[in-house]
């Protein structure tokens, strides 16, 4: 199995190939300067959290890192009161037990950093940062920690998972079902309605990298997919408790969006013929 440093070099080139050479410097900087840890037990996690000054909001004494790959925390430095945006990667070696899963986890984490790195800003006494085409606002608690007021919507997460799967496939040449371990409801299938089309993917990813809202990207079909994932999809997940009914409703939602894929694909073919 390749070590982490070897994987980082491979992922660097794969991300540059995927997103474009114009982003080479930023991607290389993120991969070079984002700390990566591996952990297997509570003691490992405790040491990582203490080193990174990280805690799970509301659970200061809980040293078990939650099952995700990319971690970020906004807080006020105690020495100079400067607001810090700290990002790092922690990989659970129990969960990520094969090379393909590690590459996928690293790819996804680097994409999240790529879509959010250096975006922290203050406007009207409110700190916020971007990830892709969405805002995350922070509220300061009485200890100078900034708590995110909203979670990242499904659409951005789905695009992230789609991209991470594509990058991992380009490296490992294996089926994504062998390594995509964190997409229970296959949200990447919804993103694929847009992102399988290379022209559309370039438009969507340009918007995410430049932090433009989907509605600004020039096609109402993009907004329809975003709305389906951010509004209709979670409504089914949260409010339908019967597994079979939930599955059927999700299937119906997905099928209702297929005509959008056909419309975009026809437009792409038409555009190619005109060139």
Question: What do you see in this structure?
Answer:
The protein has 275 residues and is an alpha+beta fold. 53% of the residues lie in helices and 15% in strands. The chain has 2 domains: 4-154, no CATH class; 181-274, no CATH class. The protein is built from 9 helices and 7 strands. The chain has a 7-stranded mixed sheet. The protein starts with a helix and ends with a helix. Mean pLDDT is 89; it is low at 59-63.
Task: Give the helix/strand layout.
Blueprint: H1 4-19, H2 24-33, E1 35-39, H3 42-52, E2 70-76, E3 83-92, H4 99-114, E4 121-123, E5 126-131, E6 134-140, E7 145-148, H5 154-172, H6 187-195, H7 198-209, H8 220-239, H9 243-274
Parallel strand pairs: 1-3
Antiparallel strand pairs: 2-3, 2-7, 4-5, 5-6, 6-7
Structural class: alpha+beta
How would you sum up the major sheet?
Answer: 7 strands, mixed
Overall geometric form: globular
Please, how many domains? 2
User: How many alpha or pi helices?
Assistant: 9
**Terminus-to-terminus distance:** 45 Å
Mean pLDDT: 89
Topology as a string of helices (H) and strands (E): HHEHEEHEEEEHHHHH
**Strand ordering within the main sheet:** 1-3-2-7-6-5-4
Q: What percentage of residues falls in helices of 4 or more residues?
A: 40-55%
How much of the polypeptide forms β-strand, as a percent range?
Answer: 15-25%
- Please give the number of β-strands: 7
Rg (C-alpha, Å): 19 Å
List low-pLDDT spans: 59-63
